[in-house]
Amino acid sequence: MYGSDFPLLDEVDSAERELHEAAGRSVERGTDLQRYFDDVIAADQKIEPRDWMPDAYRKTLIRQIAQHAHSEIIGMQPEGNWITRAPSLKRKAILLAKVQDEAGHGLYLYAAAETLGIHRDELVELLLNGRQKYSSIFNYPTLTWADMGAIGWLVDGAAIVNQVPLCRCSYGPYARAMIRICKEESFHQRQGYEILHILAHGTPGQRELAQDAVNRWWYPSLAMFGPPDTESTHSEQSMAWKIKRFSNDELRQRFVDMCVQQASVLTLEIPDPDLRWNDERGHYDYTQPDYGELMRVIKGDGPCNRQRMAHRRAAHDDGTWVREAAAAHAKRKAAA
Amino acid sequence: MLWEVFIRPRRGLSHTHVGSLHAPDAEMALRNARDVYTRRQEGVSIWVIPASAISASSPDEKDSFFDPAADKVYRHPTFYEVPEGAAHI
Q: Count of domains in chain B?
């Protein structure tokens, strides 16, 4: 289905190689902190936690890494919804492993954010009180088993396209976390694609489920790349700092171009009547997602925002006694 | 409490820093480290160390701190001229 190679994983490997190569280049260190920071970034080296960095760089990274971590944590809910109803023991085991990975990815990212001087408790609080956001995609409901397929193929697929360039991010702990995450993420996408492939080649009813899931997840997945470049507020500075490597629209286009071929193997339709190859551009033309809807969902008015946050708060509250008991146990043992 | 996690990927290799995590005590830190950092057989041994117990050199004194190493080229074998005809040296 992807051929023998997986170009996105090759990119992750080359990001890892470049990280080592760049580390070998020497950067002249004068007394000007800003200049040294700029030179390190120009040499494609990494900024590390205890290095001097501009305040705005630190703030941008905390915001972005935290939002990413929150997305992994909230992102467990739509799929968690189907663990008890997976159609076989094999699918249940796979789904459990995937949701566990998402918890793990959230933790790698929280740890990366904490190296910037913010505490875990603050990050949790910023999610629970709604001051920091998570990806809009997780505010859509998972109505059928086929949604597990569409999420793996489209949502994780879009996430990978978004995340692979972050393996080259200028901030060391974030880049290293992303290399780990992207390597694990490829199984997520493949298991989803496999689910859809099996359904699409099953009974007419199963095929219909698969097509319906793709119809519902296509445009929200396109919206995951954020607003169009003309309206993107954080992009330019993030590009200069090499936090971001490609624009929202470039990544969205890359995703669309990949999906068309993959959809044809699934024998499923992408729900866009205007999707067609443009020879001049060398890309597919496609219909943009509804950015008004994206903004409404981000602001809290998607189909499941309230439910997701209520569940997260309840899970946090329900875990209080466990955290307190573990702390009390550690204290008593330390005293003994 | 914040812990730094080090993992030995295979026998014969050194423990390498892989990340950090929160846990109330060492025992739970080890269990959490297993769940967070070794879901795909990444290691055969784990160390967890309280982050507060680590003293680190400061990047600001990078030059002066490591300076003495730079001007002692005679520490490297390539500094020496091997006379013609000498073998196994």
A: 1
